Amino acid sequence: MNPAETPIALGADHAGVALKDSLRAALEAAGHPVRDFGTHGDGSVDYPDFAHQVARAVTAGEAVFGVLVCGTGIGMAIAANRHPEVRAVVVHSTTEARLTRAHNDANIACFGARTTGPEVVLDSLSAFLTTPYEGGRHARRVSKINPSPAAQEA
Questions:
Q1: Taking the chain (154 residues) in consecutive chunks of 10 residues, what is each chunk's mean pLDDT?
Q2: What pTM did the predictor assign?
Q3: Measuring CA to CA, which residue among 56, 125, 127, 50 is closest to residue 85?
Q4: Which of 35, 151, 152, 153 is the most buried (most CB within 10 A)?
Q5: Catalytic site positions
Q6: CATH for 8-153?
Q7: In what order do the strands lie in the sheet with 88-90?
């Protein structure tokens, strides 16, 4: 993982807090600045609250990437993707992490604490953070994710 000056935004619900905390420690040990939006305990919370905070930080340029953790990663991805310019993906492997960055310019990785082992998550996060977006033929497709109002009418 190559450290960057812009922080990586983290968020989790109660099911993902332990994994989030281990990811934070790994990121900080690698020299990445981290902005942790919580949660910070195992009491029941609502995952959209944390997904929205991380998505806002990414879209505002306050974080270069976001990382969200819940039981499956699915709820977090759904909530984060409600924000224009967010491309949040559920990641289960390093291959998915590399391809979603290279082909889709994903900017938020979502992980399932109940579905993916911590070693796989760490390896996948490293791949996500270090894989560049290829652009080229993929840029046209990515531009169609949030079409302009005129394109929506066509």
A1: 78 98 97 97 97 98 97 98 96 98 98 97 98 91 78 55
A2: 0.93
A3: 56
A4: 35
A5: 70, 103
A6: 3.40.1400.10
A7: 34-36, 8-12, 65-70, 108-112, 88-90
